[in-house]
Design goal:
The chain is mainly alpha-helical. It is built from 13 helices and no strands. Helix 3 crosses helix 10. The protein is globular, with a radius of gyration of 19 Å.
């Protein structure tokens, strides 16, 4: 085990997982607060479809062209999500988000149905491959996510107001649709890059599970963010450790580690509540 940790590919993989955990746990706070749990899955699937189109067009699966094709489809999905909320909430926005996900997933299957490596590509898109990342890829996502983090810090009041009280934000005169699109556009930048590295399912898990665990522990915004980041980092490290020890795929191992943390937290909370009421 110790020898494995000294391998450069493992060290790069650990650093990549820490970068992913940091930005996704933060964005997941907004996603869970807005009640649009599956928006990340929809944007990730749109990015994955762009990745499929890039492969189909023969421009290389990890080239800059494939990234921008993937990003273009993510931006289209971000725009659709931003304008999909009806004024009277007659139709839940999650319904439209689910349709966007299903549409891009179906298109990906159709495009790859006659491709020689179709099944392998779908598996790669779903699971990712953190331990094959390179230093340039690590530096690229670290720089990009830092830029997104700076944008969110500058406009944090507006983003948090919409996430925590959308009606109050609209009543204050804020152009909610425009700010929503900016949020989902920056969200899409992150998701597009993450899907290429971590796969659709791990991106979804890092976005949703840490904020849900934090919500089980405390309603405080600051504490939720801190707990979300901690859970994401612990889950990522535990998943990579299990992957190395038991020779398992890294992405699913991290997902299961996060789910175990969720079950443990829910169990402790249940016992604590029963004890306090008895």
């Amino acid at each position: 085990m110790f020898e494995l940790l000294q391998q450069p590919f493992v060290q790069i993989g650990i650093l990549v997982s820490l970068v992913l955990a940091g930005i996704h746990a933060y964005l997941g706070f907004h996603v869970v607060s807005r009640g649009v749990i599956f928006v990340d899955l929809s944007l990730a699937q749109a990015a994955a479809f762009g990745y499929v189109i890039a492969i189909f067009a023969g421009v290389g699966d990890h080239s800059m062209q494939s990234y921008f094709i993937s990003l273009a489809f993510t931006m289209v999905a971000a725009l659709l999500v931003a304008v999909s909320r009806t004024k009277d909430d007659r139709i839940p926005q999650e319904a439209f988000i689910g349709i966007i996900y299903a549409g891009f997933a179906a298109l990906a299957v159709l495009v790859l149905s006659h491709h020689a490596e179709g099944m392998e590509t779908i598996q790669e898109i779903s699971n990712g491959s953190i331990l094959t990342c390179t230093i340039p890829e690590l530096l690229t996502i670290a720089g990009l996510y830092s830029g997104v983090g700076i944008v969110h810090y500058i406009f944090r009041d507006k983003f948090f107001m919409i996430s925590e009280n959308r009606k109050q934000a609209a009543a204050s005169g804020m152009n909610v649709v425009l700010w929503d699109f900016l949020f989902y556009a920056t969200f899409g930048l992150v998701v597009t890059s993450s899907v290429h590295i971590a796969g659709v399912l791990l991106v979804f898990s890092l976005l949703v599970i840490p904020p849900v665990i934090a919500l089980l522990i405390t309603p405080s915004k600051g504490k939720r963010l801190a707990i979300g980041w901690t859970v994401a980092v612990v889950g990522a490290l535990a998943g990579i450790h299990s992957s190395l020890v038991f020779d398992l795929p890294t992405g699913p191992a991290i997902m299961i580690a996060l789910i175990i943390l969720l079950l443990l937290t829910a169990g402790v909370r249940m016992v604590t509540r029963k004890t306090s009421t008895s």
